[in-house]
Amino acid sequence: MLDRLGLRLSSPEERATLLDEACGASGDFEIARAELADLEKQRAEYRLECEGDLVNVSLDETSAGFIYGINGPWIPDLPEFHATTRVHHVVMPHPFIDTSTIEIESPDGFVPEEAPQPVKYQSPYGSYGLQITKSKTGYTVERAVAVTALFVAPENYATMRGFFEKVRTADRIELRFRREAGGS
């Protein structure tokens, strides 16, 4: 709600900049479109829609393949737990669910390789699912994470910490593209 309110109160120029940043604008990723659906509705779903292109990618006719990681600003940060043990309860600010559908098109002259196997984790602290589907033009990535625990006792800390680490590992998956047969 606070993010939505901040965007609603910002000037159109500030809003455009904030949405571009939320979509991951950088020197390597150029945003073509960034919108927050139903911005004026106070209790609407927070649905950010982004389109963009990778730029400054050094692919040429000698490149046999291309690897692209799905992780980016479009995937919200999860809590990191560096300590191996805990004395006090872990208190989460609120439960949340995040779903993402990401369409990744093959670079010119490349085709997608086989899609990675689906990933699913279920724990007392939340759930995670990652489904990647190959198409003729690239991949469709469907990702869902739910964090449902609000209080985690110290004796359950290691298990909870393991769940978040498995999710972070799955989010570092890479998609592979190969030079199209008959391409230059």
Structure report:
The chain is α+β, with helices and mostly antiparallel strands and 184 residues long. It has two domains: 1-56, no CATH class; 65-184, Sandwich (Jelly Rolls). It is 18% helix and 36% strand. The chain has three helices and eleven strands. It has a four-stranded antiparallel beta sheet, covered by helices on one side. A three-stranded antiparallel beta sheet has the order 3-11-6, with no helix packed on it. β8 and β9 (138-147) form a beta hairpin. The radius of gyration is 19 Å and the shape is globular.
Number of domains: 2
Strand order of the largest sheet: 5-9-8-7
If helices are DSSP runs of H or I spanning 4 or more residues, what is the number of helices? 3
Q: Report the biggest beta sheet as strand number plus sense, adding barrel if it closes.
A: 4 strands, antiparallel
In the CATH scheme, the class of the largest domain would be Mainly Beta
User: Which assembly state applies to the chains in this document?
Assistant: single chain
- Named CATH topology of the largest domain: Jelly Rolls
- CATH architecture annotation name of the largest domain: Sandwich
Low-confidence stretches: none
Average residue pLDDT: 86
Shape: globular
What's the structural blueprint in terms of helices and strands?
Elements: H1 2-9, H2 12-22, E1 29-36, E2 48-54, E3 65-69, E4 90-91, E5 96-105, E6 110-112, E7 119-123, E8 126-134, E9 138-147, E10 151-152, H3 157-171, E11 174-179
Antiparallel strand pairs: 1-2, 3-11, 4-10, 5-9, 6-11, 7-8, 8-9
